[in-house]
Specification:
Elements lengths: L1 H20 L16 E7 L22 E6 L3 E7 L5 E6 L10 H4 E5 L15 E14 L2 E8 L3 E3 L1
Parallel strand pairs: 1-7
Antiparallel strand pairs: 1-4, 2-3, 2-5, 5-6, 6-7, 6-8
């Protein structure tokens, strides 16, 4: 019971931080005359057939230890990260390798190459998860502009 409560509290804390960091206005594509210093991608991954939150909401088990890659252009790997015990990771990277590939909604994607069976043996042992990116907005951290993105919906690729 305590682990479910912890998961709910961590989820709420993560949402509050994301809300605090985002600006009130939406700016469309961040390269429309906007200069930024960092690119941030927040990911929450669940142990479900498609990696998204299941019917049990925040009680859906997280996908722990999943390798998440940010790929752009011709599948160029920009950065990688591993989800924590709550299925959460946050990637921060220099935007310079990304800029030629904007808009990220169509050219950049998240790829999870850890098999689903590693979090639940009843799930497939082949294939991978993939999601396009959605632009959340911008934030400022220590005088640096950050363009924030999140997955817009994972799907299973066999």
């Amino acid at each position: 019971m305590a682990s479910k409560l912890t998961l709910v509290l961590v989820g709420l804390l993560f949402a509050a931080i994301a809300l605090y960091m985002s600006e009130a206005q939406t700016m469309g594509s961040p390269n429309n005359g906007f200069s930024f210093n960092l690119l941030g991608v927040q990911v929450t991954l669940y142990c479900t057939p498609d990696g998204n939150m299941g019917i049990f909401g925040l009680a859906t088990p997280p996908f722990k230890g999943a390798n998440v890659m940010l790929q752009c252009g011709n599948n160029q790997i920009i950065t990688t990260s591993t989800t924590n015990s709550y299925g959460i990771t946050y990637m921060v990277t220099n935007p310079l390798p990304i800029i030629p590939f904007f808009p990220p909604q169509s050219n950049c994607k998240l790829v999870v190459n850890t098999t689903l069976s590693s979090c639940n043996p009843t799930l497939p042992s082949t294939g991978f998860l993939q999601s396009p990116l959605g632009f959340l907005g911008t934030s400022t951290i220590e005088n640096k502009k950050v363009a924030n993105f999140a997955p817009s919906g994972f799907h299973y690729i066999s």
